[in-house]
């Protein structure tokens, strides 16, 4: 007999790790105990040396799907402790160390039962176990047990209850455990909200097959679905949802169905099949615009709940590729409530596939892609939240409020930053409400007592106002938008010391009171210096110009001394906007790369309007065709008050001259992107002589051509380059930078007491 102590570090809490240890110890006839500690899990084991060895091997090999075992420390102990069984002990340390698991797709064992006609959960849309199923979306409060989840109203039947208490069962202490006898049920309602008799899944499939639009309630919200292979249905959905251009995500029955639509690498297949089930951005087989996506990429996901698996299963008939787009009224958060859906989607949905398990935490689908073989986030939400991002600093009690348009917040506890799910644009009252509720929920679930707040410099952001309303006597730090972007990318890479940032986005308030967005900064988490930018663009009508991008085109033409008649606007509008520009009335200045892209896209495409933020940069990228000959436009700089400013005028003149010469749009689009890559590298070479690591952040870096072009050129020139992998480069990821800056700038006095909310659930 031997005795050992094991400490396991990594993501081993809130992922079913202790039940796993429990089962493993029982299987190998080992005795002892396990408990959560702040760094992970600690256990003591007693038994024959061979069994202990087997335990260590199985520990990493059989770990639950979401567990990340980073380090296993084994210490031999002297003598026997005389344990007679294996026990789960209460957590050690300051408490408040609970992590909550994200919502997970069904595990292989549950999938087998779902398809087994002899199983009591055959075709049951809510099958789950300790390895899979809903988590974050159903938790209301801590400790995580059934009474504090959406399952509170469902009393387990004797069969389920027996599983719940059986240590050998996969459903031992699985809080959402249920079956057709005792659990939630799905139902299908017609357009009038009347429940239809029959199998709800089959009814929904028939409606979809007939080209109808069906609202489908998932884990974190309600989707609108239609047959992705039926162009007419897709266009009808676009019309009814008032979403003319923005790409739609598609849910595919299986990988084969994905491969029919897109090119899929092995790594992308792994990502699609991971239990997190994000929407993965893939290259379309046919890059031409289609009703699903106007560019060459398509967001695709595999079914992420048993309900979606049954729905997309064509063995019962019906389409195997479905458009899945969030059901929301324009600008509002995704719907979660049945009654709300029936009211709000009248005239939009032809039928409703709903269920009676309430959604506690609204959570949209995540959108990810692979770049240089590594994960990058466009939206970090379902399947990823509320897992933390680990940072090298103590973040306890820090609350970062994020920006406004793609708002998200982050709260800190120990070395963990907990970024929120995707929230949306706070200018919408319902979204602001969602933001407030979600923040309260995070503070509760992670036992965080605010010690300081950090927000954007912009005084009118609703996130700033919310910080002011909550801060009381606590410190409030206001952080310049692009500095926060820079710090976010530094923190994303655990970078200490100084960095050079290329921060390109739509807009953010600068320290000089003007709008920035094409920035080159040097700095660290304590301070920064603005070194370079781009020539400010006048935005006629301010916000109106971000929708009517023809106005920006006109502004660029006027600035470059060209004929305003080339702007894609009706001539009366041209005259009116030109007059605004002459008088500089209602024309804020923005040194914004996003707006420059919008204006250039409008010029090339002859398109005066966009329907969604970021359309210009995305569509300009989509115009580029492989094999198109390269071209460069002139790159010129001016020095103003120590700031090295890229002069956009020679670029605009070159583009317009090429348009008049009939050069292909693909060649011009590529020329613009290559020119901007060259410009970025030139700025870096001149402004970053110290060769600080270069961080790339801001929403413009969703444009992969730019991301790749700048990264490769900089690396060739000998600069280390860091990009985002744990949070989005857009404003959604900004809160991480705010948190890192607050950790550096706000040394908190003494330890905050975070132990008050750590009531303990021994398992999970
Ligand atoms: Zn399972
Ligand atoms: Zn049951
Ligand atoms: Fe931004």
Describe the structure.
The chain has 764 residues and is α/β, with parallel strands linked by helices. A hairpin with a 2-residue loop joins strand 19 and strand 20. Helix 13 (481-492) crosses helix 22 (734-745), helix 15 (550-559) crosses helix 16 and helix 15 (550-559) packs across helix 17 (593-605). The relative contact order is 0.10. Mean pLDDT is 92; it is low at 749-764. The protein binds zinc ion (2 copies) and fe (iii) ion. Fe (iii) ion binds next to helix 13 and strand 23. Fe (iii) ion (FE) binds at residues 481, 485, 505, 508, 698-699, 731.
* Percentage of residues in strands: 15-25%
What bound compounds does this protein have?
zinc ion, fe (iii) ion
From the alpha-carbon coordinates, what is the Rg to the nearest angstrom?
A: 27 Å
Under CATH, the topology of the largest domain can be stated as Nucleotidyltransferase, domain 5
The number of domains is 4
Give the biggest sheet.
11 strands, mixed
CATH class identity of the largest domain: Alpha Beta
| CATH architecture verdict of the largest domain | 2-Layer Sandwich
Distance between the termini: 30 Å
Count of alpha and pi helical runs: 22
- Kindly state the percentage of residues in helix: 25-40%
């Amino acid at each position: 007999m031997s005795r050992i102590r094991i400490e396991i570090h990594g993501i081993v809490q809130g992922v079913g790790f202790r039940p796993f240890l429990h089962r493993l110890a029982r299987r190998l006839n080992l005795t002892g105990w396990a408990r959560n500690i702040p760094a992970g899990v600690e256990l003591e084991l007693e038994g024959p040396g061979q069994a202990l060895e087997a335990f260590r091997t199985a520990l990493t090999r059989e770990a639950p799907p979401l567990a990340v075992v980073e380090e296993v420390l084994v210490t031999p102990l002297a003598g026997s402790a005389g344990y007679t069984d294996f026990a789960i002990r209460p957590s050690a340390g300051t408490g408040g160390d609970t992590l909550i698991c994200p919502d997970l797709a069904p595990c292989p064992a549950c999938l087998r039962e779902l398809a087994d006609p002899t199983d009591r959960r055959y075709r049951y849309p809510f099958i789950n176990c300790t390895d899979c199923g809903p988590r974050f979306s159903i938790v209301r409060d801590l400790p995580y047990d059934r009474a504090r989840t959406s399952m509170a109203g469902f009393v387990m039947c004797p069969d389920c209850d027996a599983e719940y208490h059986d240590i050998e069962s996969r459903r031992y202490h699985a809080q959402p455990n249920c079956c057709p006898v005792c659990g939630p049920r799905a139902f299908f309602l017609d357009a009038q909200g009347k429940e239809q008799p029959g199998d709800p899944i089959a009814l929904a499939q028939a409606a979809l097959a007939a080209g109808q639009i069906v609202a489908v309630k998932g884990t974190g919200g309600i989707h609108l679905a239609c047959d992705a292979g039926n162009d007419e249905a897709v266009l009808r959905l676009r019309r009814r949802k008032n979403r003319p251009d923005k790409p739609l995500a598609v849910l595919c029955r299986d990988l084969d169905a994905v491969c029919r639509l897109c090119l899929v690498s092995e790594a992308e297949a792994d990502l699609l099949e991971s239990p997190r089930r994000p929407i993965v951005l893939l290259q379309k087989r046919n890059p031409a615009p289609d009703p699903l996506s106007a560019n060459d990429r398509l967001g695709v996901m595999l079914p992420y709940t048993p309900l979606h698996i049954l729905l997309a299963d064509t063995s019962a008939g019906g389409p195997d590729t479905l458009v899945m787009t969030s059901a929301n009224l324009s600008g509002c958060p995704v719907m979660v409530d049945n009654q709300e859906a029936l009211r709000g989607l009248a005239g939009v949905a032809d039928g409703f596939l709903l269920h009676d398990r309430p959604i506690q935490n609204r959570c949209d689908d995540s959108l990810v892609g692979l770049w240089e073989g590594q994960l990058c986030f466009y939206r970090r939400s379902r399947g990823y939240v509320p897992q933390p991002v680990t940072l090298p600093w103590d973040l306890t009690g820090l609350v970062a409020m994020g920006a406004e348009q793609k708002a998200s917040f982050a709260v800190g506890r120990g070395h963990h930053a907990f970024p929120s799910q995707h929230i949306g644009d706070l200018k919408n009252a319902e979204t602001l409400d969602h933001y407030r509720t979600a923040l309260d929920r995070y503070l509760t679930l992670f036992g965080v007592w605010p010690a300081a707040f950090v927000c954007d410099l912009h005084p009118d952001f609703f996130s700033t106002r919310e910080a002011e309303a909550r801060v009381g006597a606590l410190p409030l730090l206001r952080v310049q938008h692009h500095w926060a972007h820079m710090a976010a990318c530094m923190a994303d890479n655990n970078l200490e010391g100084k960095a050079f940032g290329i921060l390109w986005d739509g807009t953010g308030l600068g320290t000089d009171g003007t709008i920035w967005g094409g920035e080159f900064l040097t700095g660290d988490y304590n301070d920064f210096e603005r070194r370079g930018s781009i020539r400010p663009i006048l935005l006629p009508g301010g916000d109106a110009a971000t929708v009517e991008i023809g106005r920006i085109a006109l502004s660029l033409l006027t600035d470059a001394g060209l004929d305003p008649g080339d702007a894609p606007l009706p001539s009366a509008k041209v005259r009116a906007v030109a007059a605004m520009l002459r008088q500089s009335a209602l024309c804020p200045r923005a040194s914004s790369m996003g707006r420059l892209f919008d204006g250039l896209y409008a010029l090339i495409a002859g398109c005066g309007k966009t329907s969604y933020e970021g359309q210009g940069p995305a569509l300009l990228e989509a115009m580029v065709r492989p094999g198109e000959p390269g071209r460069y436009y002139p790159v010129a700089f001016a020095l103003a008050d120590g700031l090295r400013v890229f002069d956009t005028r020679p670029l605009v003149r070159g583009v317009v001259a090429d348009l008049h010469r009939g050069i292909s749009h693909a060649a011009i689009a590529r020329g613009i992107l290559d020119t901007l890559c060259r410009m970025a590298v030139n700025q870096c070479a001149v402004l970053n002589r110290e060769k600080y690591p270069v961080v790339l952040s801001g929403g413009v870096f969703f444009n992969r051509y730019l991301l790749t072009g700048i990264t490769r050129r900089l690396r060739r020139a000998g600069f280390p380059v860091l990009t985002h992998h744990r949070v989005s480069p857009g404003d959604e990821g900004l809160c991480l930078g705010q948190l890192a800056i607050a950790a550096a700038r706000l040394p908190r006095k003494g330890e905050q007491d975070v132990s008050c909310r750590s009531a303990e659930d021994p398992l999970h």
